[in-house]
UniProtKB/TrEMBL annotation, chain A:
<comment type="function">
    <text>Together with the cullin protein ANAPC2, constitutes the catalytic component of the anaphase promoting complex/cyclosome (APC/C), a cell cycle-regulated E3 ubiquitin ligase that controls progression through mitosis and the G1 phase of the cell cycle. The APC/C complex acts by mediating ubiquitination and subsequent degradation of target proteins: it mainly mediates the formation of 'Lys-11'-linked polyubiquitin chains and, to a lower extent, the formation of 'Lys-48'- and 'Lys-63'-linked polyubiquitin chains.</text>
</comment>
<dbReference type="InterPro" id="IPR024991">
    <property type="entry name" value="RING-H2_APC11"/>
</dbReference>
<feature type="domain" description="RING-type">
    <location>
        <begin position="34"/>
        <end position="77"/>
    </location>
</feature>
<keyword id="KW-0498">Mitosis</keyword>
<dbReference type="GO" id="GO:0061630">
    <property type="term" value="F:ubiquitin protein ligase activity"/>
</dbReference>
<dbReference type="GO" id="GO:0051301">
    <property type="term" value="P:cell division"/>
</dbReference>
<dbReference type="GO" id="GO:0097602">
    <property type="term" value="F:cullin family protein binding"/>
</dbReference>
<dbReference type="GO" id="GO:0008270">
    <property type="term" value="F:zinc ion binding"/>
</dbReference>
<comment type="pathway">
    <text>Protein modification; protein ubiquitination.</text>
</comment>
TrEMBL record, chain B:
<keyword id="KW-0547">Nucleotide-binding</keyword>
<keyword id="KW-0067">ATP-binding</keyword>
<dbReference type="InterPro" id="IPR000608">
    <property type="entry name" value="UBC"/>
</dbReference>
<feature type="domain" description="UBC core">
    <location>
        <begin position="4"/>
        <end position="154"/>
    </location>
</feature>
<keyword id="KW-0808">Transferase</keyword>
<dbReference type="InterPro" id="IPR009060">
    <property type="entry name" value="UBA-like_sf"/>
</dbReference>
<dbReference type="Pfam" id="PF00179">
    <property type="entry name" value="UQ_con"/>
</dbReference>
<feature type="active site" description="Glycyl thioester intermediate">
    <location>
        <position position="92"/>
    </location>
</feature>
<dbReference type="GO" id="GO:0016740">
    <property type="term" value="F:transferase activity"/>
</dbReference>
Length: 84, 203
């Protein structure tokens, strides 16, 4: 028997691989987006600090911009540095 | 309120309600005027402290910029504690000021306040009079704090009574024609010395 595929459609699921389920700043799930975005995914990416804590980029930027003196991780209060 | 503040408070509400501490009636929160920026918090006094058995009411105001700035919290229930003003209820606690972090929540704030009741920091006082008593005559501080707890933070019939304090308050009210709260503050601030308390009200 010979089967000929005439057409096919790929379906994929994606998921952030983070060590937590929620963003510690907005408390929304990482599978969702920050409160100011509509679509999860590339529009509302996650970023990691060198301390290994992870947040929505929009949330951590708001936090860092609100800090005048030291830029600390909102979770562990180590100095915040983006992980390369 | 900004999007993020509203959403977070809504989430935090259910978090507190579902938490172990809330199930055990150690902490709780409720809305005031149906506004998410105005909350009322309740914490129970920790065991083995002068605050045991009391329920302390807190006024919690959520700023527009929450969670990037801390909530504004003060005690509504009068309390005798080195880091809490006996007059205004203002709190001296680093996480409510410069040590705030966006990952903290109303729940963690209430638990930190409970921890503050268990362990005062008399070297970083909000109420200098209380802090001095705490350092100089700790037994007197404990009795006074326990007295305030029973008067202001407890309801019902299991209130702790210390007849000597009650008697002195009555005497001072008669001598100086002041109300009960003022008499209690004057005596508490003067190690329950009736004469000194009278003088402090005269000056």
């Amino acid at each position: 028997m010979k089967v000929k595929i005439k057409s096919w459609r790929g379906v994929a699921v994606w998921k952030w691989i983070a060590n937590d389920d929620n963003c510690g700043i907005c408390r929304n799930g990482f599978d969702g987006c920050c409160p100011d975005c509509k679509m999860p995914g590339d529009e509302c990416p996650l970023v990691w600090g060198q301390c290994s804590h992870c947040f929505h980029i929009h949330c951590i930027m708001k936090w860092l911009n609100s800090q005048n003196v030291h830029q600390l991780c909102p979770m562990c209060r180590q100095e915040w540095k983006f992980k390369e | 309120m900004a999007n993020i503040a509203t959403q977070r408070i809504q989430r935090e509400f259910s978090e507190v309600t579902k938490s172990d501490e809330s199930q055990k009636n150690l902490i709780s929160i409720e809305l005031v005027n149906n506004s998410l920026s105005d909350l009322r918090g309740y914490i129970s006094g920790p065991p083995d402290t002068p605050y045991e058995g009391g329920i302390f009411h807190l006024d919690i105001k959520i700023p527009e910029t929450y969670p990037f700035n801390p909530p504004k919290v003060r005690f509504l229930t009068k309390i005798w504690h080195p880091n809490i003003s006996s007059v205004t209820g203002a709190i001296c606690l680093d996480i409510l000021k410069d040590q705030w972090a966006a990952a903290m929540t109303i729940r963690t704030v209430l638990l930190s306040l409970q921890a503050l009741l268990s362990g005062a920091e008399p070297d970083d006082p909000q109420d200098a009079v209380v802090a001095k008593q705490y350092k100089d005559s700790y037994e007197m501080f404990k009795l006074t704090a326990k007295h305030w707890t029973s008067v202001y933070a407890m309801t019902g019939f299991d209130k702790w009574r210390y007849p000597d304090f009650d008697y002195k308050i009555q005497r001072l009210m008669e001598i100086m024609k002041v109300d009960e709260d003022r008499a209690r503050v004057a005596l508490s601030s003067n190690n329950w010395d009736l004469e000194k308390a009278t003088q402090s009200l005269l000056s």
